[in-house]
Write a structure and sequence with these properties.
The chain is mainly α. It has a domain at 1-51. Helices cover 86% and strands 0% of the residues. It is built from 9 helices and no strands. The protein has helices at 3-50, 59-71, 73-113, 116-133, 136-156, 159-174, 185-191, 195-211, 213-227.
């Protein structure tokens, strides 16, 4: 093989190696030509937008912000970690909230339907009226009276007291006042011979004996009131 042939062969090899590079350069040139108008438009738009902040923007401010961010990297990292914890907590609570919130709403709606909130509002209105009509001293006295009434109510919860009051409450329904007749002394003596009158007199005597204790109780109550 002559030298000319060797040179031609090497040139063909070099041309084969340079062909892909030429194709890549052509493709890059085409891409550059395509992107040039877009880049020019984006640059013009960026310049136009920056004109609004040109007077307020200073390079020193940007550097100060960068320095502050670099100094606060640890705090920013801590804040991001806490934010992740909050997000995880919300994701964990989300199923529970989805099930509990409707139940709470239904419960509040049921209270509204039953008038509980209206009762609470009426109670607040009553308290406002009481505060307007009475002085604090009057309310203190009323409170003392309510305490005494509660003590009386506690005594009335005794089974014997309840039984007595129930029987006493049944008496008016058993009376025939329309058929009552006038009774004189002799009629009274005659009525005392009946079993019902004797039983009634016995009950009256027991009540009279019990009422005799009111005198001592009243005296003690008066002494306590005077001491106050």
């Amino acid at each position: 093989m002559t030298n000319e042939e060797l040179i031609l062969e090497r040139l063909e090899r070099i041309e084969a190696q340079l062909a892909p590079m030429a194709e890549s350069a052509a493709s890059f040139k085409e891409m550059k030509d395509d992107l040039a108008p877009l880049a020019l438009g984006a640059t013009q738009q960026l310049i136009k937008e920056l004109e609004d902040v040109e007077a307020a923007f200073q390079l020193e401010d940007l550097m100060a912000m960068v320095k502050r961010v670099l100094r606060s990297v640890r705090d920013i990292t801590y804040a991001m970690t806490q934010l992740e914890n909050i997000i995880d907590f919300i994701k964990t609570m989300e199923p529970l909230l989805k099930s509990s919130v409707p139940q709470v709403i239904n419960y509040l709606d049921d209270l509204e339907q039953r008038g509980v909130f209206r009762v609470i509002q009426a109670t607040l209105d009553v308290r406002a009226k009481i505060a307007t009509a009475f002085t604090p001293e009057d309310i203190d006295k009323i409170g003392d009276g309510l305490v005494a009434l509660l003590g009386l109510a506690k005594k009335l919860t005794d089974p014997q007291a309840i039984s007595f009051l129930e029987r006493f409450a049944e008496l008016p329904s058993n009376l025939d006042l329309a058929g009552a007749k006038d009774v004189g002394p002799f009629g009274l003596f005659s009525a005392c011979s009946t079993k019902e009158v004797k039983q009634g007199l016995g009950v009256l005597m027991e009540l009279t004996k019990a009422m005799g204790q009111l005198k001592g109780t009243e005296g003690a109550s008066l002494q306590t009131a005077r001491a106050r």
